[in-house]
Each structure stands twice: as C-alpha cells, then as structure tokens.
Specification:
alpha+beta, three-stranded antiparallel β-sheet, 124 residues, 4 helices
C-alpha cells in the first residue's frame, strides 16, 4: 500500500487527506461522519471515490490517488480534481459526509454568535 509518486502524496496534502496506519492487538475507535457504508471488495475489484469519503480500509486493499478523468468532469463535476482508487481484496469503510461537508454545516451565523455572548457581544 502506498503512493506511486510524490505527486500523489502532494495531492493529499492539498486536499487535506491524511492516512494513519492502525495495527496490533486491541480496540481502535474511529469517528466517521454521516452514514457508514461498508464495501467488501473482491480480488481485483476497483472502487473509485472522492478521497474525503474514505474512512478506513484493510491493509490488503490497494490504495492510490489519481486525477478525475476528462476535462468536463474536472470543470463541472463539483468534487475536485482527485479520486481515491481502492482495489480489492478487502473491506473498505466509507463515510457519507466528509469533514469538508461537515464543517460547512456547523457554521454558526453571526447573529447567533452575538446573542450567545461571543466576541461581537463583548464576551470572551
């Protein structure tokens, strides 16, 4: 599992995508946003998704970042320029609400901050 080029690693830094390897004996807790979708990939089966939707995947799953094919898709697709390509065998856990979408849904309007004693209302 890894990246085929420095360009792939750089694209992850730009999109804010982070990989963390978890292993060993014990329990690991993961926090994913939205609904959880579990995909069991057969050997050689390929899944292409927006990198923000990848929650976790088994070590047996191949992973790489690629660009969205086609100039029309890049311009009008609305999901950015990159796709995560996951290749089986193994299990992939996807989140339906990537952190980028979650942050935009948690913004508090300025009027609500003022009434809650925020900086605009003189509170600290």
């Amino acid at each position: 599992m890894g990246f085929s080029s420095r360009w792939g690693r750089a694209s992850l830094a730009v999109t804010g995508f982070l990989l963390q390897k978890v292993g060993g004996q014990g329990t690991a807790w993961l926090e994913l946003s939205g609904e959880l979708v579990v995909k069991n990939l057969a050997p050689g089966e390929v899944l292409r998704v927006h990198p923000g939707h990848v929650g976790a995947f088994q070590a047996s799953v191949g992973f790489q970042i690629t660009t969205v094919p086609g100039i029309k898709n890049m311009i009008f697709g609305g999901d950015g320029l990159f796709l995560a390509v996951l290749q089986g065998p193994g299990t992939v856990w996807l989140q339906t609400l990537p952190i980028r979408g979650w942050r935009s849904r948690c913004r508090v309007p300025a009027a609500d901050r003022e009434s809650a004693g925020g900086p605009a209302a003189g509170g600290r």
